[in-house]
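Ticket #4471: complex job returned nothing on first submit. Input attached below:
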Amino acid sequence: MAVPFSYSLRNLWTRRTTTILTVAGMALVVFVFATILMLAEGLERTLVETGSADNVVVIRKGSASEVMSGVERAQAAVVEVQPEVAVGRDGRKLLAKELVVLIALPKRGNGKASNVVLRGIGPASLELRPQVRLVAGRLPRMGSSEVMAGRSVVKGFRGVGLNEWVCCGLRDWRVVGIFDAGNTGFSSEIWGDADQFMQAFRRPVYSSVLFRLRDPREFPAAKARLETDPRLTLEAKRETRYYLDQSEIMAKFLRILGVSLTVIFSIGAMLGAMITMYSAVANRTAEIGTLRALGFRRRNILIAFLMESLLLGFIGGAVGIACSSLTQLITVSTLNFQTFSELAFRFTLSPAIAAQAMGFALGMGFIGGVLPALRASRLNIVDALRAV
Amino acid sequence: MTTEAPAPIIDVRGVSKSYRRGEVVVPVLHDITFTIAPGEFLSLMGPSGSGKSTLLNLVAGIDQADSGRIVVEGVDITRLTETELARWRANSVGFIFQFYNLIPVLTALENVELPLHLSGLSRRARREHALTALDLVGLSHRLDHFPGQLSGGEQQRVAIARAVVTDPTVLVADEPTGDLDRVSAGEVLDMMARLNRELGKTIVMVTHDPRAAARAHLKRHLDKGVLSADDPAENPD
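Support reply: We reran it on our side without changes. The output follows.
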């Protein structure tokens, strides 16, 4: 049987000032750790949610994103006639030949220019992306110089509000609608007629072809046929996979940065916990001697002090995670390295991140407490009893 | 026909102990031999540094002799491993310290319950035993008080309750009245005498106080690590 848990808990409460300071240090580290992982998770989830598992994106082989891709009209026509392409209620193929170009717009906060994705869409584009909802104004007419802007673009950039004019591609484009695509990358785009954009930006080729599968299980067959057709130099990806790939570099970068930074910070927090626990052992030497004299074994003392240190870590972890969960209310906008365009997303706290952060906090508590606990357990009983 | 004397409950034979201070070896106990019969109340007296606390620690199994044998209730505790010794202490010895040595963050009841955590008793049984022990020392009304909320005398009574809660055969007391006023000291000594008389506890007490020593049946003196012959104490009653 062990030393009662209340012994460890109440000792933390007895020296609450040191406990609060140690917990605060650990909480801060856990907050940074969790927040950076949440940033990566938010980015990843935003891009993954952007795609739909039924949709297939066809881009030029070897190009990492639509921005670098080019699909010739003839190639797009070949894709269009594939048997796996679904047919809409109106009898037309659920396929959109799209163009993606980047334009620079001034940001609201500092006026500095940043890239925004301008997506040329086709008639089927909206049906292929049911998450896109018009929230103000109307849809742009095909064949006109009208565009609609995503909600995050309107929030983050100047001059893209309803009925404002965006000047690019040597033309002025009137914003006739604002759309919301939820927590997806489309909210950070401006949409207009693909053919109009091709003329204005002098692009003879599409960036991508997007189509819905007649049956999601037919993806391997469609992919195999498209990628082995000698007329095509294209590759097909499920839309979800395509966006996940886009988030990979950025998310990996954030995770490596986050973990490296917090490991460095955590050394400070662990030293703090160690000092707290060493002082606890020094102040309670006679208590340790008494417990040993009563029959508690070295292992019981080791566990009691480790428990105290793990409790410090647990409280620090809980406070850190609670604080980091508040950042979910914030939407941030950053440059996606893969598309060179701004992407708005939210910090996302997943159960896995909470578990990782708590594991990290408990790890700090353990490392900070193990040496003082070992010292406590190794004290000679007679010497410890003399410390009254 | 002769009446056989009862087998001693504590049998100390040829025990020596020295401490090392840097390069210097300081002898503390030299070839100590004595026995204590069951239900005896022995006081150990002697000047500071005479080795009486060391001898008490050896008998209580919290220190190791350099040589010799200590048999308590038929168990040679000098041959036990550290883990066995810890288990033996939990079952067979009750400690009463000069400064009470209560755990400040635990209530009186929890302090008394503490040694029972090693007994494997259920939570309810632990509580019942602790309540009985506190009732025995007249502190049933102070169950939820922390040591800091109790007087010195009350704290020592809680310590006595903790010492007897596991029903050990031997109680060791190191200057149990050393930190108490005269009235409280008298109460504590009364209680120890009662435990010895009514519950048959064997008590070994180290003290400087001649009035405390007088409550014991036997007085032994230690001087420079050598134990004097038996000296029956005067009956204080």
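The helical segments of chain B are 52-59, 82-92, 108-113, 123-136, 152-164, 182-199, 210-213. Closing as resolved unless it happens again.
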